[in-house]
Request: fold
Amino acid sequence: MQAILSSWFVQGMIKATSDMWLKGWDERNGGNVSLRLTAEDVTPYESDFYPQPRHEALSQPMPALADCWFIVTGSGKFFRNVQLDPADSLVVLQVDSDGKGYRIFWGLTNGGLPTSELASHFQSHIVRMGVTHGRDRVIMHCHATNLIALSYVLELDTAKFTRELWEGSTECLVVFPDGVGIVPWMVPGTDTIGDATSEQMKHHSLVLWPFHGIFGTGPTLDEAFGLIDTAEKSAEVMVKVRSMGGKKQTISTEELIALGKRFGVTPLEAALRV
Reply:
């Protein structure tokens, strides 16, 4: 067995994708995950690398990611199968020194490419590297059922959508005080939606793709998963509240402010004013 299969990053991707599928967020080949690695992370497993790594061009240059390593889910791969065959479902790649392409060092044993949302992931990685001074290393996208459902009935406004989720569960303001960014509906797998998503990632760790899914980020796979899980749980609560006739009482603005002070976070001001 290849040593890389027992590495923390391959095992982490197996767990994350399995958990996401079990949650019902990633039907068929839906969803994608990328984790930025360091040279120190991958060096112990060089003996498992392809002797002649395949080269692929990027749809646009990414010089800010020059020489960066990533492990990414593959395009068209089913999350439910990652645990069965991680070497076919995942890919370890390194961006070229000029940022114009990348080389595949491990994975995709039956051929194929990294996720079709690679441009969106890379554009968001660049932004989050800057915003968090390199702390955020994960971009996670999934089709979280209740967040998608709410995108059909709530106004697609960052402040209003965020406020609804904050009121859905007390922990939400603490977990994502920066709120949920929203982009218009766009064709997925394009540089255009990647640009729009990364623009929202400058201000928000969660970005909603209406009628499609959610993007989340964080320093670890657990943190990114937990962020989405928290928002999705609140969305589920609010879907049920609406089915029961709507709110009769809720968390007040004053209580949200007090919550932020207690946990030392700064809530999105626009969401407090709704």
In short: The chain is about 40% helix and 15% strand. The beta strands are 32-37, 54-57, 69-73, 90-95, 101-107, 138-142, 180-182, 206-209, 213-218.
